[in-house]
């Protein structure tokens, strides 16, 4: 038998925010292999271990294939048909809204949905249900960066491109193990450093991660002290006259107030507070100031913090003070965790946002969107952010919850409380491709969704680049695309809540959703109303803004020094350093940090189905500094009980010299499917940043004892 050549469909990787182009090899029914797309400008053919294993993660046994329903909490779910499932959901949601008001229901969605899916969910929540109770797991990921960009630069728009990473003379990587979390971008950085050894790389991270292997300087600051570090650096830059006064005068506001604040951050006191030497701090300031171009990259180490907004703003302050923004190789550049966290921000998929980078709290923005959708008004009441939303489920204010493409029973902090909330909620609908997630076990209604390789649409990566995601094969069983599930449900809900009125959801394709949605970007900072699926087909992935008539996207923002604020000037933000919410004390003398492994993704819904991806790290293991093991008379490999104020876990402990004494580290991926009892997040704390509402997943006080 002569083997037939596989068909190739170009798409985008479904894991991290690098957004690599992938060529899917398939026979129309099965995905047979994957290759990096040599023509995709994010990766030029490279893939990391996760992307290169995508074809191994389609385990059909793990997939949700048929709708399943239970009436009441005790019986197991049984298979049903789509009509029964969606009619049931529409009846429960309509009855709940009628009896208790629109804010008694909520939607918790995901940075792994496509832009078209996101848009449908937003229109459903705001225009149809009339609630702002729609939040995304991007709240756990990027919401502090959103606040940072908006406060300082006037819009949630990362100003840089990946090629800036290659062109920069000095890179500051803060709170990001890029080597594991954004591997293909890290490979690009490695290649650039090899080609230009004079490029300087500074890594700021309490752990000595693999990313530090490339660093000329590693600042192992104490957890949570980033704001003090940035203010201390600015103090030094000011003292030495290494700021760009002309840029500050021409393009910014608020420098005098910040100058007063950082006067108190003397280098010696900052070095002491951060746990580094004065020489290291001075060396860092010198590297930044002497480089013709300076770029910073950051991720969860800054964002997942009760001071996440302040950390983002303090870092952006450094760029504004040195004029290192709006030119090749320079600028503040957040790395997005999820493949389409950016698309979520664009479509308004955080409770405080609206489509087109608008604010739910802004009456003019509400009126614009309401007029576009042809509804009288949009909801005025503030929506709940992720942690608040699950608190409201826990205390009974939310009675019907729709969860799509995410696994909050594993990924939210204070997991015991999340499990209680989901157990108590009268109606939990879970729309997911995988039936094995921790959250699925709480579903009263499980709706099987199409997964990567089975659906069409678009995603936006960290550098504002919109790429096509394409369907190669048919979803298993009766699984359906996310956009079609939500539009079908919305039409049934319309019949119950606004009968006789024209449907707001007569979309027949993801392209139709994109066409309607893009109109809401017109004239806004992110304007991509010049794009369409057809234009992307013709020109390939493009960076926004891409207004009508554009021939190509926009690689860099703010080249003319004009920002997205009303007066065009960027803002310095003067906020003092605040310590993390939980500090070490006698009962909990260690600080727990959680993070990513190289070969796993989030809650392992997909990567957990491929045995090969456990080769790098087969189990969840607690890391402690050898001194901390010795003090507790523990040995490498011992089983220990790790305890926080919220719960405990039993795990093996390993000696880890990459950690500072007093710190503990765990991979974030393991839920209760893989661990006995509860998952890693039983330990983590739900305290969140007052502005971004992003929880402090990176710092929880813990203790450890031998079992
Ligand atoms: Fe996928 Fe990210 Fe790896 Fe690229 S770097 S292949 S987007 S996981």
Give structural notes.
This protein is of the alpha/beta class and 707 residues long. The chain folds into 4 domains: 7-61, 2-Layer Sandwich (Phosphorylase Kinase, domain 1), CATH 3.30.200; 68-133 and 340-543, Rossmann fold; 143-335 and 567-571, Dimethylsulfoxide Reductase, domain 2; 590-684, Beta Barrel (Barwin-like endoglucanases). 31% of the residues lie in helices and 17% in strands. The chain contains 23 helices and 28 strands. It has a 7-stranded mixed beta sheet, with helices on both faces. Strands 23-27-24-26-25-28 form a 6-stranded mixed beta barrel. Helix 4 packs parallel to helix 14 (308-322). The longest helix has 19 residues, at 82-100. The N and C termini lie far apart (59 Å). The model has no long low-confidence stretch (mean pLDDT 96). The site of iron/sulfur cluster has 14 residues, from helix 1 and helix 7. Residues 13, 15-16, 18-20, 43, 47-48, 50-51, 182-184 line the site of iron/sulfur cluster. Residues 6-62 form the 4Fe-4S Mo/W bis-MGD-type domain. Its cofactor is Mo-bis(molybdopterin guanine dinucleotide); [4Fe-4S] cluster. This is Molybdopterin-dependent oxidoreductase. Keywords: 4Fe-4S, Iron, Iron-sulfur, Metal-binding, Molybdenum, Nitrate assimilation, Oxidoreductase.
């Amino acid at each position: 038998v002569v083997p037939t050549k596989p068909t190739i469909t170009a798409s985008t990787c479904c894991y991290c925010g690098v957004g690599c182009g992938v060529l899917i090899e398939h026979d129309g029914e099965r995905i047979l292999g994957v290759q990096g797309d040599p023509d995709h400008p994010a990766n030029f053919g490279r893939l990391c271990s996760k992307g290169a294993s995508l074809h191994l993660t389609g385990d059909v046994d793990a997939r949700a294939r048929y709708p399943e329903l239970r009436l009441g909490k005790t019986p197991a779910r049984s298979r049903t048909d789509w009509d029964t499932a969606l009619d049931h959901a529409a009846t429960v949601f309509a009855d709940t809204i009628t009896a208790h008001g629109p804010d008694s229901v909520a939607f918790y969605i995901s940075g792994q949905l496509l832009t078209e899916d996101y848009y449908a969910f937003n229109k459903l929540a705001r225009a149809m249900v009339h609630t702002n109770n729609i939040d995304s797991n991007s709240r756990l990921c990027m919401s502090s960066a959103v606040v940072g960009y908006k406060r300082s630069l006037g819009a949630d728009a990362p100003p840089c491109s990946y090629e800036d990473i290659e062109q920069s003379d000095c890179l500051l990587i803060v709170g990001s193990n890029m080597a594991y979390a954004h591997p293909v971008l890290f490979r690009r950085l490695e290649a650039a450093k090899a080609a230009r050894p004079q490029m300087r790389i500074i890594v700021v991270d309490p752990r000595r991660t693999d990313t530090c292997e490339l660093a000329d300087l590693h600042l192992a600051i104490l957890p949570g002290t980033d704001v003090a570090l940035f203010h201390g650096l600015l103090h030094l830059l000011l003292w030495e006259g290494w700021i760009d006064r002309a840029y500050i005068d021409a393009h910014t506001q608020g420098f005098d107030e910040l100058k007063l604040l950082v006067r108190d951050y003397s280098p010696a006191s900052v070095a002491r507070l951060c746990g580094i030497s004065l020489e290291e701090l001075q060396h860092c300031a010198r590297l930044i100031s002497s480089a013709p171009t300076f770029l910073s990259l950051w991720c969860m180490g800054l964002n997942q913090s009760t001071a996440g907004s302040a950390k983002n703003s303090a870092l952006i302050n450094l760029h504004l003070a040195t004029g290192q923004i709006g030119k090749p190789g320079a600028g503040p550049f957040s790395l997005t965790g999820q493949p389409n966290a950016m698309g979520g921000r664009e479509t308004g998929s955080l409770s405080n946002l609206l489509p087109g980078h608008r604010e739910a709290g802004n009456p003019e923005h509400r009126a614009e969107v309401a007029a576009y959708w042809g509804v009288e008004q949009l909801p005025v009441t503030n929506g709940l952010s992720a942690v608040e939303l699950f608190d409201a489920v826990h205390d009974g204010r939310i009675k019907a919850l729709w969860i799509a493409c995410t696994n909050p029973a594993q990924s939210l902090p204070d997991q015991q409380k999340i499990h209680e909330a989901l157990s108590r909620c009268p109606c939990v609908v879970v729309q997911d491709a995988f039936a094995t997630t921790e959250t699925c076990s709480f579903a009263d209604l499980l709706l099987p969704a199409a997964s990567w390789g089975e659906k069409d649409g678009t995603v936006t990566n960290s550098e504002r680049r919109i790429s096509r995601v394409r369907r190669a094969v048919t979803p298993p069983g009766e699984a359906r695309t996310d956009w079609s599930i939500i539009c079908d449900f919305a039409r049934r809900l319309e019949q119950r809540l606004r009968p006789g009125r024209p449907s707001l959801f007569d979309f027949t394709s993801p392209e139709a959703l994109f066409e309607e949605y893009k109109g809401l970007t017109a004239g806004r900072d992110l304007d991509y109303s010049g794009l369409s699926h057809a234009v992307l087909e013709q020109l390939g992935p493009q960076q926004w803004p891409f207004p009508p008539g554009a021939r190509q996207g926009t690689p860099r923002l703010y080249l003319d020094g004009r920002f997205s604020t009303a007066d065009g000037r960027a803002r310095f933000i003067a906020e003092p350093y605040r310590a993390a919410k939980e500090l070490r004390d006698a009962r909990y003398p260690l600080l727990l940090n959680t993070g990513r492994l190289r070969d796993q993704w989030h809650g392992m819904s997909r990567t957990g189905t491929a045995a090969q991806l456990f080769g790098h790290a087969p189990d969840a293991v607690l890391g402690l500094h050898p001194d901390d093991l010795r003090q507790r008379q523990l040995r490498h490999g011992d089983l220990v009980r790790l305890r926080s104020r919220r719960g405990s876990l039993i795990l093996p402990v390993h000696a880890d010299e990459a950690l500072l004494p007093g710190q503990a580290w765990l991979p974030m991926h393991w839920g209760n499917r893989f661990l006995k009892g509860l998952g890693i997040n039983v330990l983590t704390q739900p305290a969140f940043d007052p502005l971004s509402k992003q929880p402090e997943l990176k710092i929880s006080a813990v203790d450890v004892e031998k079992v």
